[in-house]
Every structure is written in C-alpha cells, then in structure tokens.
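User: Just a sanity check before I run the rest of the batch. Below are the structure tokens for the first item. I only need the designed sequence back.
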C-alpha cells in the first residue's frame, strides 16, 4: 500500500512539473528577435561599477566603447560611466588612458574613506546613475564582454518602444570541466525561469550583468527602504518593486548577450551563489512559493524515483521518469540552442541530477543574512 502511494505521488509530482512546462516554460518559444529602433535613437548611459578591475577593464572596456550606436551623422549617442569604487590597483590608470582616446568615457572616483549611505555595490551604482546624463540606462559589470557591437542597440530597443525594464542574457564563457558545464547550464536554466515567468506576468529577477532600464524607474526603486539593506541584489530588487508584465521586456538575441568568465574554483563559486540566492527572501510571496515549489518538486521527484528503483514499481517508475526527462531535456535543449549553448545538450542527465543536489546545498542561504560588502 505504501509503495503504491509513493508511486502515485511520483506521478502527481511529474504531472505538476508538466504544468510548469505548459504554463511557464513553453513561453520560451515566443522569444523572437526584437523590433529595430524605428524612431530616432535616444542617447544612452552605460554604467559600470569597478573595484580592483584593472585587468578586466583593460580587456573589455574597449569592446563596450566600440558599440555601434550613433545618429545619422555618425556621432556616438552613448556615454560610458565607470565608477571606481576605492580600487587599490591600476583601475584608475586604465580608465584615464582609455578616456584620452574616447571622449564619451567618464569616471567617478570613490575614496576609501568615503562616507557611505548605502552598503556595498549599491553606493557605487547610486553614484554612477546619479551622474548619468541620459534617461536610458544600460547596466553591466566590469568583467563582462558584449557579444557584438550591436549589444547596446539590441538591449535598449524595447525602451524605445515604451518598456521601462529590459532583462537580457548574461552568459559564461565555455571551458572544460564539470563545474564550468554546470555553471553554464544553471545560468541557462535561470534565464529560462525568469524570462518565462516575466512573460507570464510574474517578473521576479534579472541579472545586473545585462540589464537596461529608465533612469526614472531605477531611482524610484532606490527610494524603497529594502534597497539599503543589501550590498548587491539591485537587479532583483528593481524587478521586485517596479517590474510588471507590461513594462518589462526580455531580450534573447545572440548579438545582445554579455559573456563573463565563470568561477573555476568550487569554493569561490559556492560563496558567489550563497550571495545570489540570499536575495530570494525579498521576492514577492507568490514568486517565492511558485519558484520554491518548482525546485522542491524537482528534488522530490528524483528522490522518489531513486527509492522506487528498489521496489516492484521500478519499471513503472522508470517509464514515468523517462517521459518526464524526455520533456524537460528537449525543452532545456531548445533553450540551450537559443542561447548558443548546444554543447550542454549532452550533459542534461548529469545536470538534472546535479541541480537536485544544488538545491539541497544552497536553499538554506535564502534565509541567510546578507554580507554588507560586495568585494
């Protein structure tokens, strides 16, 4: 009797997961190339916060300054603002050298002993946005490379069409190794979640590595009391307080990606994920329940399957799990194709089980107290 109940629970869990596919994840097939900017291009401020990022700025900042975004006469219609947050390396020297070659590059220096009104990265970001000359903002990190010279234009196109927030794709570079594979898969899976949830009317997160918005809506978000409680998480908090289905756009075009180097050390990656997931406690209640249930169902389904493998229900459980895996692996494969991560397809069985272990490992940090420093 008990085994029969467990098998029925497994079937129910799989059916509910299919509900997530139909209601949320299937919307990924509606992600189409964005419309080009039809009217006159509006000027844009790109804001980057940097703390001891000399090497990354030397490598990636020229790619950002090389964006093709100009008016009919060929004049650049964007500025780049780098906020040097008390760096003690060659960050300022790198910016000064590039500023001699690009008159649209500006920087702001924050002294080590500056009195901070916000914790961590928030203070630097606040400084940069306050100094932004234009209403349209594009935010990224110092260690991010735009995937093309059209990154800027692709990301701000929805702003020209009346949207106020644009969530993009922040990929990680491909390297050998299991950790890199899992990080890239988890990044793809996270984008699948937050993009389709937004399309379903439940926007809840974005990545600060690739996020566009209006200056007005960002400054409105900064007025909330919770804004000052975290050193980072500005991307998720912006979505939490200001994003709606009507004012939010998702951009998933290869020319609009940013690409970063993933952590290659397991301990460093775990510390990074602990910081990231700790923002989850500030999501709206409905989002917490929906996203949390999905993660729990995923882990619970695999656990039940492993238990039933050693019972007379093993063949039935294997059949049910095979159907479930076929649906999810095909779906993830289609998403990986959209994000130009085709090599992830072969890793689907391993990352599927790996994500179960991941959820057990990081879920307690949703309730963890946030550190007040971002680096």
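Assistant: Here's the designed sequence for the first item:
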């Amino acid at each position: 009797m008990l085994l029969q109940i467990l098998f029925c629970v497994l079937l129910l869990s799989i059916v509910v997961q299919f509900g997530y596919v139909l209601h949320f994840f299937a919307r990924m097939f509606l992600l189409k190339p964005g419309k080009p900017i039809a009217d006159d291009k509006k000027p844009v401020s790109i804001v980057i916060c940097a703390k001891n990022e000399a090497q990354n700025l030397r490598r990636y900042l020229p790619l950002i300054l090389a964006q093709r975004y100009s008016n009919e006469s060929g004049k650049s219609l964007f500025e780049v603002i780098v906020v040097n947050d008390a760096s003690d390396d060659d960050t300022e020297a790198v910016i000064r050298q590039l500023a001699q070659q690009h008159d649209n590059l500006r920087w702001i220096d924050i002294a080590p002993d500056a009195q901070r009104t916000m914790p961590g990265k928030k203070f630097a970001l606040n400084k940069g946005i306050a100094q932004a000359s234009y209403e349209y903002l594009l935010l990224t990190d110092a260690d991010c490379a735009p995937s093309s010279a059209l990154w800027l234009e692709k990301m701000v196109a929805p702003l020209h069409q009346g949207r106020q927030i644009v969530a993009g794709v922040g990929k990680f570079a491909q390297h050998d190794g299991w950790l890199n594979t899992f990080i890239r898969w988890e990044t793809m899976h996270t984008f699948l979640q937050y993009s389709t949830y937004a399309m379903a009317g439940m926007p809840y997160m974005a990545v600060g590595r690739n996020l566009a918005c209006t200056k007005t809506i960002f400054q409105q978000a900064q007025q909330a009391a919770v804004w000052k409680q975290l050193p980072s998480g500005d991307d998720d908090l912006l979505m939490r307080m200001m994003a709606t289905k009507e004012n939010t756009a998702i951009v998933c075009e290869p020319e609009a990606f940013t690409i970063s180097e993933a952590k290659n050390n397991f301990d460093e990656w775990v510390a990074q994920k602990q910081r990231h997931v700790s923002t989850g406690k500030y999501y709206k209640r409905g989002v917490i329940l929906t996203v949390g249930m999905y993660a729990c169902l995923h882990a619970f389904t695999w656990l039940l399957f492993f238990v039933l493998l050693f019972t007379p229900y093993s063949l039935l459980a294997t059949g049910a799990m095979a159907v479930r895996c076929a649906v999810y692996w095909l779906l993830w494969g289609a998403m990986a194709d959209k994000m130009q991560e085709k090599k992830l397809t072969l890793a689907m069985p391993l990352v599927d089980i790996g994500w179960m272990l991941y959820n057990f490992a990081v879920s307690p940090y949703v309730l963890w107290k946030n550190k007040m420093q971002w680096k």
